[in-house]
Amino acid sequence: MTGTGNQIDPGTQERIRRIRDFLRTCDSLTVLTGAGVSAESGIPTFRDAQTGLWAKYDPMELATPEAFAHDPVLVSRWYDERRGKCAACKPNQGHLALARLQQEFEASGRRFMLITQNVDRLHKQAGSRNPVELHGTFWLWRCTSCGEEREEREVPFPDHPPRCACGGIRRPGVVWFGESLPEAALATAWQSAGSCELFMSLGTSGLVEPAASLARVAANSGAKTVEINLEPTPLSTWVDISIAGATGELLPLILSEP
Ligand code: OAD
After folding, report:
1. Which atom of ligand 1 is the closest one to the Cα of 203?
2. Can you spell out the DSSP letters for 88-132?
3. The model's pTM
4. Less Cβ crowding at N or C end of the chain, within 10 Å?
């Protein structure tokens, strides 16, 4: 075992060995990622304390249609600042390991699906192909008048909120609290979780539905289930294998078998 494997306790080493066996023998793998996978790239997780100017705001109150309707400048600035932070971040070893895993699965004719709750697009940047973006992305902004959606890479916006050519204001292409998820993305995620042989939940608190139910859908369909997360979640007591740790460290280790 290469990497820091020999500094990992025997129990975790045994879990890593079992996950490698699962990965070797399964014909289809579905992965769900959360903000924890981007944490080692320097992007605060969703429930981390807000800092600086935003310390006085609760993200749950900013990420809503009502907040945008009430103060589109404030909400647009918040997302613009998050985009700016993200633009300076790079995919970490966990993102890169997942991109490699997808290549290995697809090269051997096996099914691989990456579903993410993250809106930063670091999976795409790391080389993951066609990740399902359950909660959208703040790199896409949609006109609230004509509906035109386009990728906005300029950071920061010259003015807030950004305007559409039609004169309408643009909103970030993310799912806000109280909004429904993109139908196609949700249907793909549900179908993939319900038909895979192995399901891995990585870096998510498993608190926000419907993403949080995907692991249960997989288990009820007979899939083996694995979780890697820094702290315990509602999944930790029932999945087949749960490892407490950092995805940026454990994923490369799991994939770096001799
Ligand atoms: P959370 O912030 O709820 O959870 C992130 C999880 O990652 C926590 O349980 C951390 O312990 C764990 N974690 C942190 N660093 C880690 C690391 N290096 N390796 C492994 N785990 C680590 O974020 P999500 O579960 O993604 O939805 O939250 C799901 C959704 O809640 C978000 O997509 C957002 C929010 O409502 C929308 O914006 C619609």
Report:
1. 21
2. T----HHHHHHHHHHHHHHHTT-EEEEEE--SS-HHHHHT-SS-E
3. 0.94
4. C
